[in-house]
TrEMBL record:
The keyword Membrane applies. Its EC number is 3.5.1.1. Coiled coil: none annotated. GO terms for molecular function: asparaginase activity. Keywords: Hydrolase, Membrane, Transmembrane, Transmembrane helix. This is Asparaginase domain-containing protein.
Length: 159
């Protein structure tokens, strides 16, 4: 069984025309999993609905606590990309679980989003990787503490 936690981020953003802004909405993760033909073998729990730039140490501690308390050895976390590496660094304290964080550069609701690919890739990664904390984005796996987001290139890279 794989535990999936959602925290918000771009993957779950919705465009609100009234104020011409994106806001985190209901998670599309159940739909994305179904579209990927993943129908069982997981438990889904929403932890929060935040843009990762709004996440703070208390939020990261809540993610750590949820992962610690989970009876699953394999955990997938959807997260905003801007501070995903920060949360991964906090989760690195857990040595006996395989934890994979993923997200999207474009909201899942947009036609050219990388969300569906990243979810499928992270689903495979969490099942295949040894215990540790990883980021799975755009076909690459990065170890926690050795990755950063390159804002200009809109991708993750090793540090």
């Amino acid at each position: 069984m794989i535990q999936i936690f959602t925290t918000g981020g771009t993957i779950d953003k919705v465009y609100f025309d009234a104020n011409s802004a994106f806001e985190v909405g209901d998670s599309l993760l159940p739909e994305l999993l179904s579209e990927s033909n993943i129908h069982e073998g997981y438990r889904l729990r929403e932890l929060m609905r935040k843009d990762s730039l709004e996440m703070n140490d208390t939020d990261r501690a809540a993610v750590l606590q949820a992962a610690t308390e989970s009876d699953c050895d394999r955990i997938l976390v959807t997260h905003g990309t801007d501070t995903m590496a920060d949360t991964a660094a906090v989760l690195a304290a857990l040595k006996d679980k395989t934890i994979v964080l993923t997200g999207a550069m474009q909201p899942a609701r947009m036609r050219r989003s990388d969300a569906l690919f990243n979810i499928g890739f992270a689903w495979a990664a969490v099942q295949l990787l040894p215990p540790g904390v990883y980021l799975a984005m755009n076909g690459e796996v990065f170890e926690a503490g050795a990755v950063r987001k390159n804002l200009k290139a809109q991708r993750f890279e090793r540090t």
